[in-house]
Specification:
With 170 residues, the chain is an alpha/beta fold. It has a single domain (5-168), classed as 3-Layer(aba) Sandwich (Trna Endonuclease, Chain: A, domain 1), CATH 3.40.1350. The chain has 4 helices and 6 strands. The chain has helices at 5-20, 95-112, 131-137, 159-168, and strands at 34-38, 42-55, 61-74, 77-91, 116-124, 143-148. It has a 6-stranded mixed β-sheet with strand order 1-2-3-4-5-6, sandwiched between helices. It is globular. The N and C termini lie far apart (36 Å).
Length: 170
């Protein structure tokens, strides 16, 4: 099967739902897919293609659209929100695609501080930028996960991603 970035996003959001989502909460599809996550500590909303605004040093602000955004509300601090922003790059991604995501993550970190946890998910197909070079560029992300293109359909390929998200939901 040939995977586009949108198909990979749909696979990833479904895996997150299957492993962490509240039963029967999945709605929409593609860019409108969303569901809830609930445990003893948090009530969270996971959705595809959601935006967060960030401030620039020159007084302007920009908006960044995450491929998948988890908005977390802690049950014992209902007014405090935190976020997990998941960026997905795939196949023959080039250096500039990672640099633009890094620019946004740097500024999201400046605006949201420890309230945002960034994950770069790179599904590599053996050409284009190497995993190591992409990881070097993506230093502001809290977690860089590289997956081989041939592993996309294997449930175990996503264990590191689920573990990273689960660690934020405590």
């Amino acid at each position: 099967m040939e995977y586009s970035e949108n198909i990979i996003r749909d696979i990833v959001i479904k895996i997150i739902y299957d492993r962490l989502g509240a039963k029967a909460s999945f709605q929409g599809q593609g860019e409108t897919a969303r569901f809830t996550i609930e445990n003893d500590f948090v009530l969270a909303k996971c959705a595809a293609e959601q935006s967060l605004d960030y401030d620039l040093p020159n007084g302007y602000s920009l908006s960044h659209k995450s491929d998948i955004l988890i908005t977390i509300v802690r049950k014992n601090h209902a007014r405090d929100k935190s976020y997990v922003s998941i960026e997905i790059k795939h196949k023959s991604a080039v250096t500039d695609q990672f640099k633009t995501r890094t620019f946004d993550m740097l500024h999201l970190k400046q605006s949201y501080g420890p309230q945002i946890y960034g994950i770069m998910l790179f599904v590599r197909a053996g050409k284009g930028i190497s995993l190591m070079q992409a990881k070097k560029i993506c230093y502001p992300f809290d977690k860089f996960i590289g997956i081989d293109y041939s592993e996309v359909e294997k449930p175990s390929a996503w264990n590191e991603l689920i573990a990273a998200i689960s660690g934020v939901l405590v």
